[in-house]
């Protein structure tokens, strides 16, 4: 536990360590992350409900932690490194995916180390996906340069751009 001035603490930060007794995280938390009410599972609450053929896939990605919230929907972008020194590309990998749980990743707003565009906030999100999508997200989390979540407007359920890829020439 660390003391933190109230003005820098997240709005739903726990102020009493006793509140953690018996608590369970609803999402995976990296070392050093803030423990807030939003990332704790309510005692007796079940894990996020998924139906037959669905999975709850947990990822850490770039995105706005204030806009990516449980119950919201996101699109998932995957940026791959190129092969043999060639530039990579970014692809719209998943569209209109339901967010089951989300939390900001503490200390994630860091400058990029290689001069790339990797700076920005990161969010830990649990997404409702198919088995195939869960396997893809797991591989992307391991091998892609970056995953990015784009929050969708509440009423925006349009589809049709899945697989859209943009390369270094922005085409």
Radius of gyration: 17 Å
Q: Would you count the extended β strands for me?
A: 8
The SS-based structural class is mainly beta
Order of helices and strands: EEEEEEHEE
Residues in helix, %: under 10%
SSE topology:
Blueprint: E1 24-25, E2 40-41, E3 54-62, E4 73-80, E5 89-104, E6 122-130, H1 131-143, E7 146-151, E8 165-167
Antiparallel strand pairs: 1-2, 3-6, 4-5, 4-7, 5-6, 5-8
Provide keyphrases for this structure.
mainly beta, 171 residues, 8 strands, globular, 6-stranded antiparallel beta sheet, 1 helix, two-stranded antiparallel sheet, single chain
Q: What do these coordinates show?
A:
The termini are far apart. The radius of gyration is 17 Å and the shape is globular. It has a domain at 52-167. It is built from 1 helix and 8 strands. With 171 residues, the chain is mainly beta. The chain has one helix at residues 131-143, and strands at 24-25, 40-41, 54-62, 73-80, 89-104, 122-130, 146-151, 165-167.
Summarize the structure.
The chain has 171 residues and is mainly β. The chain contains one helix and eight strands. It has a domain at 52-167.
């Amino acid at each position: 536990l660390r003391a933190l001035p109230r003005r820098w603490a997240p709005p739903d930060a726990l102020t009493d360590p006793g509140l953690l007794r018996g608590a369970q995280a609803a999402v995976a938390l990296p070392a050093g992350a803030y423990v807030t009410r939003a990332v704790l599972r309510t005692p007796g609450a079940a894990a996020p409900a998924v139906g037959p053929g669905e999975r709850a896939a947990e990822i850490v990605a770039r995105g706005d932690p204030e806009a990516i919230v449980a119950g919201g929907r996101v699109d998932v972008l995957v940026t791959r490194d190129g092969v043999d020194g060639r530039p990579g590309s970014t692809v719209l990998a998943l569209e209109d995916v339901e967010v089951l749980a989300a939390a900001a990743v503490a200390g994630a707003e860091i400058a990029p180390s290689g001069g790339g565009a990797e700076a920005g906030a990161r969010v830990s999100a649990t997404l409702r996906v198919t088995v195939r999508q869960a396997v893809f997200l797991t591989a992307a989390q391991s091998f892609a340069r970056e995953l990015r979540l784009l929050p969708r407007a509440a009423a925006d359920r349009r589809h049709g751009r899945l697989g859209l890829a943009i390369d270094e020439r922005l085409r």
